[in-house]
Amino acid sequence: MNSDIRPTITTTGLHRVDLNLLPLLAALLEHRSVTLAARAVGLTQPAMSNALQRLRRTLGDELLVRDGRHYVLTARAGALAGPVNLILETTAHQVLTPPTFDPATSDRTFRIAATSATALPVLPALSSVLAVSAPGVRLHLEPPASPLDLTRGEATADVTLLPDTVPTTLPRERLYQEDWVVVADARNDPVGAALTVDDLARLPHVVFEWQGGQAGARQALARLIPGLVVQCVVSEFPMIPAMVTGTRRIALVQRRLARRLAAQHGLRVMETPLSPPALGIDLVWNPRTAGDPGRTWLREQLLRAVH
Fold first, then answer.
1. Whether 200 and 232 share a structural domain
2. pLDDT at 11 > cutoff 50
3. How far apart are CA 299 and CA 287, in angstroms?
């Protein structure tokens, strides 16, 4: 071995190493011939000889030594074959190959942050799609992040279903639009066939609040009826039937949700005599995950679930 060969790789000096030499090293280790290695990678023999000299200086080892008419690997070179091939395969398959997602074979768990009211209009259709097209995919439903976290652009779920009244710096796309109706117990005699503004003013209400925030429709209703009688406050819209059934109370509810609640709890659904602002529900996601095909697929399925 040449006495002037010294290794140049250290744990802190990898940036100074020409990593383009790794495929050439793999070819030399496989073919044990400068000529055959050069042919395999498409280089001239002088260029491969030059690469071998650079590799010897970098690794501090002869790598190939002559044994009669042939070259053989040094002990160091023989030990390098496996790790070098692993590095190249990992780079090719995990670094350079774009990620893919196959719903039919995936067993990923996707986290959806949403209130019950925003999730119920889309989850049944989404669940049906998963059962057929992605049987191994799992959904983890969780409460949305706090308004403060969303305003700061913090989100840990794969996607959040967020009312358009809640600000966030994260990317968002309209999922669906909701208008408002009023629900009442089917036996609520004080309510006639059609709801009037006077009914809204004199009947007690069940209202929704989330972490101190109020729906835009509730705020609009309170402005139009300053003396609004609020008898119950709930933190989840699906809790409204329990507070309405068997009472004189009424509540403003999103139309899609009201239809589901009415069928399950024997409620009447009526058009409101006022025109509270519509509620937009947005898909919100973290831009750092925008290139993930699995999360892209999930957003596409949610969008299809409302059409």
1. yes
2. no
3. 13
Give the whole-angstrom CA distance, residue 236 versus residue 247: 19
Cα–Cα distance for residue pair 43/23, rounded to 1 Å = 12
Domain that holds residue 40: 14-95
Sorted by sequence, the CB contacts under 8 Å of residue 124 that are 6+ apart come out as: none
Residue from 243, 242, 239, 241 nearest 230 by CA: 243
Residue 142 inside a domain? The answer is yes
Q: Where residue 116 sits, what CATH number does that domain have?
A: 3.40.190.10
| Domain assignment present for 3 | no
| Tally of domains within the chain | 3
pLDDT at 150: 60
**90 and 237, same domain (yes or no):** no
DSSP H/E element including 174: strand 172-178
- The answer on 272 and 259 residing in a single domain is yes
Q: Is residue 100 part of a domain?
A: no
Query: Is 7 within a domain?
Result: no
**Average model confidence (pLDDT) across the chain:** 85
The CA-based diameter of the chain, rounded to the nearest angstrom, is 107
The string of pLDDT tens digits covering residues 243-274 is 999 999 999 888 988 988 888 888 999 998 88
149-185 residue pLDDT tens? 665 656 678 999 988 888 888 899 999 998 999 999 9
Token pair for residue 307? 């059409």
- First and final C-alpha spacing in the chain: 73
| CB contact at 8 A, 279 and 163 | yes
pTM of the predicted model as reported, rounded to 2 decimal places: 0.64
Following DSSP, what letter does each residue of 179-239 receive, concatenated? Answer: -EEEEEETT-TTS-SS--HHHHHHS-EEEEEETTEE-HHHHHHHHH-TT--EEEEESSGGG
- Looking at the fold, whether 115 and 232 belong to one and the same domain comes out as no
